[in-house]
């Protein structure tokens, strides 16, 4: 039987040298993923003990098919692309060459693994290991200069423990020799031969990587692009990477001037999310599974690929990609979010809202030629409506496909038809019943951060240019993501928690933390309110702040305070305030509708993203003393019933799923818009829940 592959033995030293020279190349065929250090530790330990660690798979390619290397070396022509085992080979390269890799935020970091010759144990390096004379704290140093590290290890050991006996020295030499011999560990590499066509290679990759893992449809499409259009895949990856980087940081990484990046206050996209926009604009498809099937272009009756049809589908994506990645389109669309009153990622509770709306923006601007001023206001209202109604929450693909089909059904490509189609949808969604019934009901929630309706209310305050609760400072300033987060601004209970618990007798946190019980104010106002009853602190607050009748009337409107609210029964207060919150939100939308939004135009970020948004490796937090093995994490929002456990391996486990960062764990829990350090809290030895943010502050 003829096969398209053959097994070949490769030693580790040959592998890492070939990666460095560019002969073996690592295109980004696999899902974006950085192994935790514990996996690298386990890989070295298995190799040391002579255990099998799995095969690698290369695709032997010609010069015109070669791609980039992870090392950046370009001196030789690549002849092998790895399509399976990328994480293992990247880890080996990082360890044996001492090379840095990029983490989830594209920061450069080194994989430091320690080895104890006395116990033959590998471990992720920490401060205690670095100080111990029993360990070689970084095996990369050993592989870089074996003789020097052997000598320095024995010298340090003897200075601390006394002269080595002959038997002990022989034991150490034998074990360090075994460590050094890892260079000769032989991998079986399955090499796909150059005459295998791209369809076969793509099929092999999908089959291999579908075993034991749950690939998303976007992963299949990215794989397909890696084989058939690697340049397009590379552009998607570059845009995704740069959405996390300022131009200055991107220039440092690229080692060339970069004048613009897609970084913004709302979304750091990944390549899979960009695929969703790409196929919507190019193929007019929202369901990625259908888009992938169309790209495969298999005849249903024969099962064979139809080349002409496949080329036609690829051509659609090639035509759409420049539109999706165009600086002007992205920048103007992001401006719509600012015009709609949204200030940061926290306020947009669904990534799909942004992605779907961006696809519609591109179609309105390019296919229908809508004037940019008209389109900006229309899409700002579309974003506002989609957030309020949860349009792209749940069956998001189905809903987006309906929206795409509406546009396809338009006869001709007139701008007015695009505008009227979207206007009719907005009017149907934001009906009278919505404002009077559905929105008040949607505000029955104890999570202000995850409540789409409450975040839309805050956006309305920005549109209305409202002041904070009983202050002359603007809400917009309170929400400005470019300002450092301080204790000076926060949302406060209008009916304080201890008052409700001790006086009213309500101890259910879900009731106490209802979004209708919160108002944006500052720390000094919090202190003045303290734990007093509203009937006590409200008259005093009015007198102290010196608001005249008109200013006080405006305050009560903005902050949805019913007449006599300070003396209301708590349940009645919540009901009345939800109705008023909906009315304020409606007023904000009406001002937006008539093009009177006070929200400033978005400005490009020039500083690094806030610390809260940085991807925090669990292992790094453990090293810093913020987390410990066995810690139990729970969401700060007590309405989300979920538990996560920190393990020795530097990951958190939720229902059997492992996550290397707090952000990834929060995303699994359904939080698109809340950074992991803000989403999770940890139980201390006294049984109290402590926020991870506060623990990080203490550690600093």
Break the fold down into its secondary structure elements and pairings.
Layout: E1 5-11, H1 12-21, E2 24-25, H2 37-48, E3 56-60, E4 80-84, H3 86-97, E5 101-102, E6 108-109, E7 113-116, E8 121-124, H4 127-131, H5 139-144, H6 146-161, H7 166-180, E9 186-192, H8 198-209, H9 217-228, H10 230-242, H11 247-254, H12 271-283, H13 288-296, H14 307-324, H15 327-339, H16 351-366, H17 372-389, H18 396-408, H19 415-429, H20 432-442, H21 452-463, H22 475-479, E10 489-493, H23 497-504, H24 509-512, E11 518-522, H25 523-529, H26 534-545, H27 549-558, H28 570-593, H29 618-623, E12 632-635, E13 644-646, E14 652-654, E15 657-659, H30 662-668, H31 676-679, E16 680-683, E17 689-691, H32 692-699
Parallel strand pairs: 2-4, 3-9
Antiparallel strand pairs: 1-9, 3-4, 5-6, 7-8, 10-11, 12-13, 12-16, 13-14, 14-15, 16-17
Helix pairs in contact: 1-3, 8-9, 9-10, 9-12, 9-13, 12-14, 12-16, 15-17, 16-17, 17-19, 20-28, 21-28
Tell me about this structure.
The chain is of the alpha+beta class. It has four domains: 212 residues, no CATH class; 157 residues, no CATH class; 158 residues, no CATH class; 89 residues, no CATH class. The chain has 32 helices and 17 strands. Strands 15-14-13-12-16-17 form a six-stranded antiparallel β-sheet. Strand 16 and strand 17 form a beta hairpin. The longest helix is centred in the C-terminal third of the chain and has 24 residues. The protein is flat and about 90 Å long.
